[in-house]
Amino acid sequence: MDFANYFPIWDKLNPEQQERILSVTDLRTVKAGTVLHDGSPECLGMLLVKSGQLRAYILSEEGREVTICRFFEMDICLFSASCVMPNMQFDIFIEAEKDTTLWVIPACLYQNLMDESLPVSNYSHNLITNHFSDVMWLMEQIMWKSFDKRLAAFLLEESNLEGTNALKITHEKIANHMGTAREVVTRMLRYFQSEGMVRLTRGTVIIENRKALKNLQG
């Protein structure tokens, strides 16, 4: 499928606008672990995922990562287009979690489309609202929900995404997602293991009792 099948408001654009997008939009393939946006003020543009998986995260002053949002096939990310979101007051990093193919629409073109097309403007503002809703939800989880509940929810989410109970993920990677220290994750996972909820092997967390994790998650 081509770009037109992935861009949700393609049919709301006129032929001239469609041609402008196709003439400058760049299709890229990046390896897992590639940082697409490093939190700098530079405006990369809008990202549209064709296949793979991205994550957006922020860094604490101590250098700890906190995942704020993930993007999958047919998802659009505007966090990389800071000029489209001028009131954004924090630096956001974007990384490919898996080998990913995506389109990059230049920020200047997308800004022009927002200025001249009401459907693009409305759609973009809805995206921005949804992005910040994700951020606010995350902040609420961190502030009000205990770490054991957050970790249980994370493991179940990962299991659903990967389609398996055997999660190939390190304690360090979990810590990066959740904005805490690796030692904190290790201690809680060992507690989960003592309670029969998970089993730990090198580089893998195996979910043994999904029901118990769901009960803990609340």
Give the key terms.
alpha+beta; 218 residues; Arc Repressor Mutant, subunit A; Jelly Rolls; four-stranded antiparallel beta sheet; 2 domains
Q: How would you explain this protein's 3D organization?
A:
The protein is α+β, with helices and mostly antiparallel strands and 218 residues long. It folds into two domains: 3-143, Jelly Rolls (Sandwich), CATH 2.60.120; 145-217, Orthogonal Bundle (Arc Repressor Mutant, subunit A), CATH 1.10.10.10. It has helices spanning 3-6, 15-24, 107-116, 118-144, 147-162, 171-178, 182-194, 210-217; strands spanning 26-30, 35-38, 46-51, 54-59, 65-71, 76-77, 93-96, 100-105, 166-167, 198-201, 204-207. The strands form three sheets. A four-stranded antiparallel sheet has the order 1-8-3-6. A four-stranded antiparallel sheet has the order 2-7-4-5. A three-stranded antiparallel sheet has the order 9-11-10. Strand 10 and strand 11 form a beta hairpin. Helix 3 (107-116) packs across helix 4. The longest helix is centred in the middle third of the chain and has 27 residues, at 118-144. It starts with a helix and ends with a helix. The model has no long low-confidence stretch (mean pLDDT 88).
